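User: I'm writing a tutorial on reading structure tokens. Could you give me a worked example: one chain, its sequence, then its tokens, then a sentence or two explaining what the tokens reveal?
Assistant: Sure. Here is the example chain.
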Amino acid sequence: MDIPDTKEDASVYKQGKLLIDATCAPSDFAYPTDIGLLNQAREKLEKMIDTLHAERPYGTKKPRTYRRNARKEYLSWSKQRKPGYEKIQACLKGQLTYVRRNLKHVEALANEVGLDKLTRAQHKDLLVIQEVFRQQTILFGNETRSIQDRVVSTQQPYIRPIV
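And here are its predicted structure tokens:
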């Protein structure tokens, strides 16, 4: 094919979509569910506990995280086709409990060995997880559905979805 010489012929080569407004841009991430966010937070906290525990003296007892039970509860909820309100609330309460326990363990281990043993990414994740936990506790306790500057992704906490 030849390159068009005139303006009329150039219209044939126009294709694609141009986004002009930079205040709103598409971002690909999974649909955020509160229980899914808490499950991701719990898994990341467990890795932080493993990292911090590895820095402790040999022979010290590792904190209980109940990771098998937590994973089992999350999977049993996520595999349901349409879980009812009671099942959602029960699973949400359970995940909040696991995250609360793990946050306390991370705090205790950080006091013992220091937060400098965590990687930069883990430290950033810890701050995001604390915010997610705070928001989800408010949402669960007050039975509200919205909160200001809600975190919907632990990987990209700065994203705010729009309708």
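What the tokens reveal: The chain is about 55% helix and 0% strand. The chain has a mean pLDDT of 86.
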